[in-house]
Model the fold of this input.
Amino acid sequence: MGKLQYVDGNDVQLLHCGGEYFASLLQAIESAQREIYLETYIFSHDATASLVRDALIAAALRGVVVRVVIDWLGSGREKALQLSQILIAGGVQCRCFNRWFRRGLARTHRKISVIDQKVAMVGGLNIIDDHISDDGWEHVLPFPRWDFAVQIQGPLVAHVHLEVEAQWRKTGRLGLLSRIALLRNLNEEAHISDSSLSRAALLVRDNLRNRATIQKAYLHALGNAHQHAILVTPYFAPGRKFRRALIAAASRGVEVVLLIGVGQFVLQDAVAHSYYPKLLRQGVRIVEYRKTQLHAKVAVVDNDWATVGSSNFDGLSLFVNHEANIVIHDKAFTAKLSAELQRGVADGVEVFIEDYVNQAWYKRAWYGTAYLVYRALMRLATFGSYG
Done:
């Protein structure tokens, strides 16, 4: 799928936080009869992750083909290898993505599962208890991590399956001719069905076929916005095009709201703060979510466009890592997600330009320095693509 392809006739259900997501994932794994694919950035070792691990092993023991891809860095180098050994001993096929950066800097940041080619789940949730921080310190969170995923049934599942199967093959030993054939298969046109159910598309970002697919989808949605746009991310450090799209929408009278997670990484917060004054002066509303760890990467635009996935609004997600989002054109789904986001905005703290007018010089210097350091690192990592 080298270009964005919308598919009609999908049943897309919103999954809110780990309570809904892990219940659905475990049920699907326990019901699997033939095949399970699971790809994740973090596969932890806590009680919740152990339930998923044991369910995968149980499925393999009853004859289901189970294939798992975990990110070597995201899951912790030693812990990733230990988990891989446990899964393989239990009959699960498991591979670690990009060990020792043998294929460049990119990580698989995608969170995807496909069961029996009938049910797919895509979103922002790693395999980790949502009461435990995912920054390596394992702090107990005051409330469950705020995050979303979608469960999909319908023709779009075939697209998701094709992607996760291709990732599995690419993490193994695949020759040049086989890789070319795989790309040709991924670029084939998909079957479009006619139905009253959701119209949806799978967006993926990688460093070969889809270098800017996710960002282009956001830019297109913002460029066509008429009324409102709520965009949610834990890490805000997009390139110049993305920032200009936010400002352009606000200048047309669109209510643009950024809901940003804060408090996890000091440098990341400083970089985000460096953008605040210009965005606020141009009419973009900024709300900081401080209730618990915000991990959602979601957005709604007007009344019929929504996206849920793994891509943050930062240089790593938009220019380096492998990511996966689902875009949904459905008024009922958009209304449901919008209601959840409005509650998130209500739980946040709005930032105003007055907060920055008389800021101490050392704070301004810190934000500016953080931005310059981050921009330099991203330009190096992206060979100048990050602006």
